Amino acid sequence: MSTEIFDKKKTVDLRKKHIGPSCKVFFSHDPIKIVRAKGQYMYDERGERYLDCINNVAHVGHSHPDVVKAGAEQMELLNTNSRFLHDNLVLYAQRLQATLPDQLSVCYFVNSGSEANDLALRLARQYTGHKDIITLDNAYHGHVSSLIDISPYKFHQLSDAERNQSVHVAPSPDVYRGKYRADHPDPATAYADDVKDIIHKAHEKGGKIAAFIAESLQSCGGQVIPPVGYFQKVAKHVRQAGGVFIADEVQVGFGRVGTHFWAFQLQGEDFVPDIVTMGKPIGNGHPMSCVITTKEVAEAFMLSGMDYFNTFGGNPVSCAIGLAVLDVIEKEDLQDNALRVGGYLTKLLEEQKEKHPLVGDIRGHGLFVGAELVRDRVKLTPATAEAQEVIYKLKEQHVLLSADGPHRNVLKFKPPMCFTEEDADAVVEKIDRILTDLEKALGLNLPNTETLESKRKLPTDENGHNHHNGERRQRDPRQTKRLKT
Q1: Within 420-467, where are the H helices?
Q2: All residues at 6 or more sequence positions from 242 whose CB lies less than 8 Å from its CB, including other chains
Q3: 373 φ, ψ to 5°?
Q4: pTM to 2 decimals?
Q5: Tens-digit pLDDT profile for residues 239-294
Q6: What does the DSSP assignment read for 346-362?
Q7: Cα(366)–Cα(415) distance, rounded to whole angstroms?
Q8: Cα angle 54, 57, 60; round to 5
Q9: If residue 167 lies in a helix (H) or strand (E), which one and from where to where?
Q10: What residue ranges in 366-455 does DSSP mark as E strands?
């Protein structure tokens, strides 16, 4: 059944008239109009089906009947704020906390990942009495003002004078393209020592560290997997400086990494953040999120004398939906599915790396996987135009995938958790053919061969965010072009 009210052209015209011009759409030259979705598939107004490889919001699958039913039934019964007692709130808090280390026991329910990260900064600053924040290069933590300040993914275009001087940027712990790579004897310590140096320099200028914040796995930064031990070492330096460690699980939590329920647990059982933020998958598309912290941090926040109240955070409908999501993850064994299917997808992509010189690196955990395309495997020249060509060609073949990272050359896989091995086969087979055609047209036979100049102009961004060349800040005009095949 179609839910289309206007034809596509009318929808586009009305959007241009009434929606802010900075609100971007995917595939802006020919956007897709989606009218319904189910599981790992989305359908346009003509009934054409698209395989969704990027929607980490519809965590247990689009329009999951158990989640829809839970929300509808609770909405019929009661929806109010958390200043009234209701069991859904405490039941959900109890269920959610049971997935985390015991120290993380106090919940604050809010409505989006941005709200969660903003509140986490408030908690950290109140608890420590300090102001300065350390963030990672290429990080993205949300769209509110406090988070733009700590999101280099967004603020790279600003001059030094325009940036918040209490925010310090540490190198992204990228062992493929970063400062310390896989051949380094101890990249975890080396990257953590950079954080230690930042703390020392901040202290010399009179600053005091309130928090270090990091996505447990960097997503917009290019599907970056920190070396094991990095978080422990950083946490030691930060805590010695009087700060706390905030783990941002907004994009990678709830079993997506397969081996663990939370991505920060990949660092080892001996690592426990002081604050964890979550959003996106928590409600399978319903606007809800949460901050979980220790009793000590929560009590310090209370001592500020300011009550915390959130009109919609923790309402009975949101909690019913959150409970349903947890039930589905368990009932359908989706964490194990992420481990099994994600491993299979990674294996298929590794085979493409052996076959295609454009594929420089495959990395990921579970159903969080990145394929970095490069023009030269030694120089690591970003294959930005080629990555854009891949996602456009896939779109033409009814597969939705995105490219991100500082160079927009990393193909990002973050599909709904019901993604199957058959889905993985289908998308990788298409990527194989697209890369084969690209490399043939470009005369690419050896891993170190540079590609030809691209011919057709592409939109610079298919993810709705501003990107800036990580080499930095002058954009290479070749990287905004689409290859002609």
Answers
A1: 421-442
A2: 128, 129, 130, 208, 209
A3: -95, 135
A4: 0.91
A5: 999 999 999 999 999 999 999 999 999 999 999 999 999 999 999 999 999 999 99
A6: HHHHHHHHHH-TTEEEE
A7: 11
A8: 95
A9: strand 167-170
A10: 368-376, 381-382, 399-400, 402-404, 410-413
